[in-house]
Write a structure and sequence with these properties.
- Strand 11, helix 14 and strand 12 form a beta-alpha-beta unit.
- This protein is α/β, with parallel strands linked by helices.
Length: 412
């Protein structure tokens, strides 16, 4: 990036998630942006945030680094949130004291760019405009998806209206946009046509941060097989996702109930990794009350990245039957670890997975069931086909993504 530019990275999303020990995909992206930019442009990078009191300001870099290390340790189980109320609020107060926003300094460079990698506070266009005015900055924003607008039936109540507000803020204020996939770019271009705006858009796939070290992880974390109390020859499938209707968990649960009927104790195992989301009563009823689920389907809501990648590596295949995605990062993570993927046949999945995964329509229950049966076999030909295809697959990197961001910054 040109030496006359300064990047101000917004950490508001991470600051707002202090009560959550398990990161979402958006949380992980904001962390990746911070780490990658610190490596690439440490002398041209500053941090800022809006806290829970609505106060905006700069975060000194030394304090931001302490905060990022703290969040990373929280995600990986090295520290934990105190369980008692008084201790919990003391913990939160300490972090918010560390991250208390400071005044915005005068610009010592020719151009300042405010960079936001999450949708945090984009519903408030007036607030966003005041931040840009205070910073005297251009604005670049990363778009994760337009799913609540394209598929309002999968969003929270009023989710579509809120996302339209976010996209209107981007349309009105952004000087440049990074899309995480060409599918996201296309949908945003369609949105821009309605608002009659023209904004430079660059598509850059999200990187994959593989931290898995087989020997180290096994020494620190219990293996998937130890946790389930089974031997390593038994097939285990894994799905990494928040439990919500768009993710199509109900398809898998109905398949597993049928597999238990057909195969009994020879049924493969299904591990669901992710917190419980919204509008998911039918899914939770099956998880909590269906007898067939009790010995073959297991749910884990709090896994650190290291342990999650260890378990993914030990699974027979990653399953991703979701109806809609902005990108599909677990697919890239699985392939990079040499793990086969069975996923829904949607544009975002094909974009990230290329020729490697097996693509199946998300409503083709029989097709999914037959694939699970086939991949459960120790000598599956379809597994071998994927393993060979992986040799030609290009790993998306954070370095390439951040290069695209900095190139866009140079053009402003």
């Amino acid at each position: 990036m040109q030496p006359d530019r300064e990047i101000v990275l917004d950490l508001s999303r991470l600051l707002s998630r202090l009560f959550h020990a398990t990161p979402t995909g958006v949380d992980r992206v904001e962390m990746a942006y911070a780490r990658a930019l610190l490596r690439r442009i440490p002398d041209q990078l500053s941090f800022a945030a809006i806290n829970i009191f609505g106060r905006y300001g700069r975060i000194p870099n030394d304090k931001a680094l302490i905060f990022l290390d703290h969040v990373d340790n929280l995600w990986n189980g090295k520290i934990s949130i105190p369980p008692k109320s008084i201790e919990k609020w003391q913990y939160i107060s300490k972090i918010y004291g560390l991250m208390w926003p400071q005044s915005v300094p005068e610009n010592s460079r020719s151009l300042r760019i405010f960079l936001q990698s999450s949708p945090h506070h984009l519903t408030n266009q007036k607030l966003m405009a005041s931040i840009l005015k205070k910073e005297k900055a251009k604005f670049i924003c990363l778009l994760h998806d337009l799913i609540p607008i394209s598929y309002p039936e999968y969003a929270r109540p009023n989710g579509a209206d809120l996302h339209i507000k976010r996209m209107n803020t981007v349309a009105q204020l952004a000087d440049g946009v990074i899309a995480n996939s060409y599918d996201t770019e296309k949908k945003f271009q369609d949105f821009l046509q309605k608002s009659e705006k023209n904004i430079p858009i660059v598509t850059a796939h999200l990187g994959v941060d593989i931290r898995h070290n087989s020997k180290l992880s096994k020494n620190i974390h219990p293996s998937l097989f130890e946790t389930l109390n089974i031997n390593e020859e038994q097939p285990v499938f894994i799905y990494i996702s928040t439990i919500e209707p768009r993710k199509n968990h109900l398809l898998l649960l109905n398949i597993w109930r049928n597999l238990v009927t057909l195969y009994g104790d020879k049924t493969p195992y299904l591990v669901l990794v992710g917190r419980r989301g919204w509008e998911n009563e039918n899914i939770l009823d099956m998880l909590d009350r269906c007898p067939a689920m009790q010995k073959r389907v297991f749910e884990f809501s709090h896994l650190g990245d290291d342990q999650m990648q260890l378990w993914l590596k030990q699974s027979r295949a990653l399953l991703m039957p979701s109806f809609a995605e902005g990108y599909g990062l677990p697919i890239a993570e699985a392939i990079s670890l040499g793990v086969p993927v069975i996923c829904s046949d949607i544009a975002a999945h094909r974009e990230v997975g290329g020729i490697v995964p097996e693509y199946i329509d998300p409503i083709d229950g029989l097709g999914w069931q037959n694939a699970v049966i086939e991949y459960s076999r120790s000598n599956s030909e379809r597994v071998e086909i994927q393993k060979k295809a992986m040799l030609k697959w290009q790993l998306p990197s954070w370095d390439a993504h951040i290069t695209a961001v900095l190139q866009l910054a140079d053009k402003l």
